[in-house]
Amino acid sequence: MYRQDGAGDVVRLMTVRKVYGKERTGVVALDGVTAGFGRGTFTAVMGPSGSGKSTLLHCAAGLDKPSSGAVVLGGKDLSTMREVELTKLRRDRIGFVFQAFNLMPSLDVEQNVTLPLRLAGRRADPNLVRTVIEQVGLGSRRKHRPAQLSGGQQQRVAIARALVTRPDVIFADEPTGALDTCSAHEVLTLLRDAKNLAQQTIVMVTHDPVAASYADRVLFLADGQVVGELHRPNPEEVARRMTNLVARFEQRPQDGPRMNELMH
To answer: If you compute the radius of gyration of the chain from its CA atoms, what whole number of angstroms results?
Structure first.
């Protein structure tokens, strides 16, 4: 369970502000966000287009630097780290799953899964690799290339690739956006199982209330601020809250620059 004091958080954002452009005239993507993500928790992040969801994920993962505030991951303040240190941290301690599977077409399943380890100069533990591939249901397809797999199977490869490094946290950005309903269920179940069985911390950006219902908690954003959260969500309640949030978001005064679609 998330604690307000931040104790036990694997990742914590503290009054994070992110402005694209100049402070006085730029676009405010995040406006004083404080949020924590504890070990073994699965959090979905939702909000209207332009609310700052992906910017929150990028700042939390060290892909983007806040204009002010701090991001602490695994006890390290990312704002104090040089780019080479951030690159190593992302490689060793963070897993990523995106809507695009980002697999190497010339490599088979096992080679794609172990690619991050090879790039880091680390030896892959054959038993761990085998276990992770079997966990995602691809034990019989270890030597298949991406073109020989369905979309859902390719996303399972991407999840195995994220898990094999034993990361502190996995950030997932619309991981089921390109999948059919059945494949999406399989992928979300895998993420939930990783949380339950391996105490994996997962932070997932999504627009889908059904996808969000697989999480322990939903964090709602609007205009770059946290405006609410929901524990033990169900699709109906998530959809109701999102409908109300979008209605309020669209009715607010248009007195400042808005985030565009790419900044969702």
So the answer is: 18
Cβ-contact 62, 73 below 8 angstroms = yes
pLDDT digits (tens, 9 = 90+) for 227-236: 999 999 999 9
CA distance 196 to 187: 14
Angle, helices 109-119 vs 151-163, to 10°: value is: 30
Confidence of residue 259 (pLDDT cuts 50, 70, 90): very low
In terms of Cα–Cα distance, which of 57, 69, 96 is closest to 219? 57
DSSP single-letter state for residue 7: T
In one-letter notation, the amino acid at residue 75 is: G
Q: How many CA atoms lie within 13 A of 213 on its CB side?
A: 14
Rounded Cα distance between 104 and 109, Å, is: 9
Name the amino acid, one letter, at 28: V
Which two three-digit tokens encode residue 117? 């380890």
Give tens-digit pLDDT for 52-67. 999 999 999 999 999 9
Q: Where are the beta strands (DSSP E) in the chain?
A: 9-20, 27-38, 42-46, 68-73, 76-77, 94-98, 169-173, 201-205, 217-222, 225-231
Residue the block writes with tokens 């406006």: 31
| pLDDT for residue 125 is more than 70 | yes
Per-residue pLDDT, 120:
83
